Amino acid sequence: MRNPMPFLLLCALAACDFRAPADVVEQARTFPLRAEWTASIAPVGGAGTVTGSVNLKEYAGSQIDAEATIAGALPGRAYQWRIFRGSCTATAAADLVLFSTLQAYPDITTDPSGAGKASALLAGALDPGAGYSLRVRLAVAQTNWNGTAPLACGDLQHNK
């Protein structure tokens, strides 16, 4: 009896599809929209003047387009903004978990009127059953912020 291995190998190669692989999608807007989230940002503790908003578009493929705007801030200054799991009522670092990475959030630099905005493409998906907040503070050299003591905060609302 002859060795069937060469025949089986030939059959396996014939069954392979050598065409180009499927297209790779690299931009969030090419994925279907899964959810939208918004928040109005207000000063924390009744002091301060920083207000604003955030709009998130969450796409299938675990990508989120985020845009944050602020007003009433000091002119010509940089502000850090981060999304945390936990509402604005959370004040302890143990109750807050950063969404995405620190590097994913570019600073918001304000214009002479104290307004500014920044956009980010975040990796991940938000859980509609959990609470999230957008927190804003003056930028500092050390960006490892745990979310405590923000100047302004807004709880995210799941809109879709």
What is the compact description of this entry?
Helix content is 7%, strand content 39%. It has 160 residues and is mainly beta.
Explain what the structure shows.
Helices cover 7% and strands 39% of the residues. The protein is mainly β and 160 residues long. Strands 1, 2, 3, 4, 5, 6, 7, 8, 9 and 10 form a ten-stranded antiparallel beta sheet that branches. A hairpin with a 7-residue loop joins strand 1 and strand 2. The radius of gyration is 23 Å and the shape is elongated. The mean pLDDT is 87.
Please name the defining characteristics of this protein.
160 residues; mainly beta; 10 strands
Average pLDDT: 87
Q: How do the SSEs run, as a string of H and E?
A: HEEEEEEEEEE
Low-pLDDT parts are none
Strand count: 10
Gyration radius, rounded: 23 Å
Distance between the termini: 66 Å
Structural class: mainly beta
Would you spell out the secondary-structure blueprint of this structure?
Elements: H1 5-15, E1 33-43, E2 51-59, E3 63-71, E4 78-85, E5 97-98, E6 108-109, E7 116-123, E8 132-138, E9 152-155, E10 157-158
Antiparallel strand pairs: 1-2, 1-9, 1-10, 2-3, 3-7, 4-5, 4-6, 4-8, 8-9
